[in-house]
Design the sequence.
């Protein structure tokens, strides 16, 4: 009876194969992200282009990295804000998920959990936190090695395109 | 399954060229050598002319797994450095006329192999054999690079462990872009998978996403066979032997259904896909 109550209030831990699968997912996510500097550059350029539609930023001091944390892998972006854009009509593609879906899915480097607002993202709205402009978004997708190789070729094209976008917005192109 | 002669269309004058398949894994100790020996023996038993090349220079083992250690007189580097002819160095298997072995040098280093010479040797072997199976060393350094240099296809061996899957994923990323490597999942323990204590076939291949060539169970027969130097693939009574033979047939172009591995004690065969799919 006591055992029964114990199991009732302390459900057994998930099977170790589930733990293995989850650890594997995260470690590969981390491995893949750290392996593609071109993709990171392209992502950074795209990110800056989108954010600069809303606020004026100092893209020369912007930093975008991936971090393998305890329970997830996240994109960490530190983008200094230099000014607020004049309040005009919001751009037609106003939200991130819409913007993401507008991009050719073949060129996606990572899949992100756009629905889950992380603590850091919320903190961005906070005046104290916005000083360093840090944001973090959990990364959820693993792209297989075969797919990655295919995409690696496309990453350079994407980077070029993003740089062109950034230049159109009057921002310096990313290296 | 693609045709055996693939890169150039067959011309009447051109001799048929065999396939050079590297068996690789990244991680050590997952069963590359055992897989090479068994798939090679099974291909030979199907009537194909096969040569097994031990590319693990400095850690020669394929000869032992095949029980041919007493017959090795010359090795890979002897041929590359023209200290012996190819015919002198090729060891004929004691069971099958179709199977030959080119042993690795035991007292040399992987860096002693010149990549261009290795490629040229694989070309020579492909002219004489239908299948050249290259047993790749663990790691992703020079030995790996030399082993894949002369190949045109890869079989990735992976065990259902986090470290092995991670390394397999890394190795697949290092293979040439136009290859479509096939996967063998080795040392699967169906009972543990059923209890949720081991990654399943679907778990592993859900991540690697490679064409599945076969699944080999972790069973004592493999160890006994290695003790004796007799490839299990030649044991007609062994279920694991049958799994190796199915892999060989599939590699040779047969259209074979999903591999099956028996759950010990239950006495029935189940399709791996349905049995292990979806169980966390």
Sequence:
């Amino acid at each position: 009876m006591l055992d029964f109550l114990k199991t009732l209030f302390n459900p057994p831990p998930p099977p170790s194969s589930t733990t293995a699968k989850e650890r594997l997912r995260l470690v590969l996510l981390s491995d893949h992200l750290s392996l593609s500097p071109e993709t990171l550059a392209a992502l950074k350029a795209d990110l800056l282009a989108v954010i600069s539609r809303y606020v004026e930023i100092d893209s020369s001091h912007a930093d975008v990295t991936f971090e393998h944390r305890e329970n997830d892998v996240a994109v960490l972006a530190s983008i200094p804000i230099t000014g607020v854009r004049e309040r005009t009509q919001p751009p037609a593609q106003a939200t991130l998920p819409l913007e993401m879906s507008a991009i050719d899915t073949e060129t996606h480097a990572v899949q992100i959990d756009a629905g889950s607002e992380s603590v850091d993202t919320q903190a961005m709205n906070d005046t104290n936190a916005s000083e360093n402009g840090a944001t973090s978004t959990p990364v959820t997708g693993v792209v297989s090695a075969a797919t990655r190789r295919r995409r690696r070729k496309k990453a350079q094209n994407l980077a070029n395109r993003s740089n062109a976008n950034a230049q159109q917005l009057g921002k310096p192109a990313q290296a | 399954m693609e045709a055996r002669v693939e890169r150039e269309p067959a011309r009447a004058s051109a001799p048929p060229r065999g396939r050079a398949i590297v068996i690789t894994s990244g991680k050590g100790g997952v069963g590359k050598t055992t897989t090479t020996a068994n798939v090679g023996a099974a291909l030979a038993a199907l009537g194909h002319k096969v040569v097994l090349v031990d590319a693990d220079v400095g850690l020669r083992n394929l000869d032992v797994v095949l029980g041919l250690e007493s017959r090795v007189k010359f090795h890979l580097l002897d041929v590359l450095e023209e200290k012996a002819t190819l015919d002198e160095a090729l060891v004929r298997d004691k069971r099958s006329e179709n199977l030959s072995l080119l042993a690795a040098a035991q007292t040399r280093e992987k860096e002693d192999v010149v990549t261009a010479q290795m490629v040229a040797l694989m070309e020579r072997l492909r002219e004489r054999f239908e299948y050249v199976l290259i047993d790749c060393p663990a790691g992703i350094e020079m030995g790996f690079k030399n082993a894949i240099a002369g190949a045109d296809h890869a079989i990735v061996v992976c065990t259902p462990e986090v470290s092995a899957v991670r390394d397999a994923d890394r190795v697949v990323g290092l293979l040439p872009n136009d290859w479509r490597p096939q996967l063998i999942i080795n040392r699967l323990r169906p009972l543990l998978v059923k209890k949720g204590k081991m990654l399943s076939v679907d778990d592993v291949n859900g991540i690697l996403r490679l064409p599945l060539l076969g699944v080999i169970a972790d069973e004592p027969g493999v160890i006994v066979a290695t003790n004796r130097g007799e490839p299990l693939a030649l044991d007609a009574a062994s279920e694991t032997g049958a799994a190796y033979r199915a892999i060989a047939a599939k590699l040779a172009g047969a259209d074979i259904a999903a591999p099956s591995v028996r759950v010990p004690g239950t006495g029935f065969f189940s399709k791996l896909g349905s049995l292990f799919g979806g169980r966390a």
